[in-house]
Amino acid sequence: MLLRNILNIDISNFLAGLLAAIFYLILGFLLGFLIGKGLKKWSKKAGLEKGRSYNFIELFINVISWSIYILFLYLALVELNVPIFTRWLTSILVVIPALTGALVLMVLGFTISTYLRNVIEESRIEGGVLFSNLLYYFVLYIFTVFAFKTALISVDSRIVNYLIIILTGIIGIGVAYYKIRKE
User: Can you state the percent helix, strand and coil of the chain, rounding each to 5?
Assistant: First the structure.
């Protein structure tokens, strides 16, 4: 009798988890699909498809949609209580939002730096072209560093700081070499 009660509880828990998992999968698919469609419609309405970087915008929209799909797949697997898949997806879920955040920071940095460069160049102040280019690369660099830190959020911060210093040095040497070679 006791064994039968335990089996009934396990079966009923499994069925409840299965129904919750199916609900999460359907909800995740619908949300990911609708948000992706909505973002595509918004980007076309805003005229972004005419720009040369529309592929980048499509990539960004796909990353958001797939992040939603994976999040709800994770929630479904948690409800099913399958530890192997749950651990695997947990490791992925740490990376995907970090990469999405880094992508958002890169787009934001590029947009802000381009806007500031155009505003300064249009003001036609003396030395404006040089200043606008310096500001453009500075703002782009700052957002790149933040994006890099965001993408590697699961890595020890000292290692990330060392990597940023090394990459900054390599980029600086590359820019200096390019300028010297150009002249």
Answer: 90, 0, 10
